[in-house]
Design goal:
It is built from 4 helices and 2 strands. By secondary structure, the chain is an alpha+beta fold. It has a two-stranded parallel ribbon with strand order 1-2.
Length: 74
């Protein structure tokens, strides 16, 4: 991070309140686990093998592992 970059630690901003060049730190943080990913993927009926099938996704570069469902990260 450069010395002129500003950081903001808070939650609950509207889109219009975001400023260009500001780094927003989100608290509280939480690690997404394999169980979180599998549960969300099955609850949303997203049967994409990249999220569920370890053998399938382990064989695919560049990540070579299951990917977190992007809707969960949203």
């Amino acid at each position: 991070m450069s010395s002129h970059e500003r950081e903001v630690v808070q939650r609950g901003l509207w889109f219009e309140e975001f400023e260009t060049g500001v780094r927003y730190l989100h608290r509280p943080g939480r690690t997404i686990t394999e169980a979180d990913n599998v549960l969300f993927t099955t609850l949303t009926m997203n049967t994409q093998a990249l999220h569920l099938d370890a053998a399938f996704s382990d064989a695919l570069p560049p990540f070579n592992q299951r990917l977190v469902n992007s809707m969960f990260t949203l």
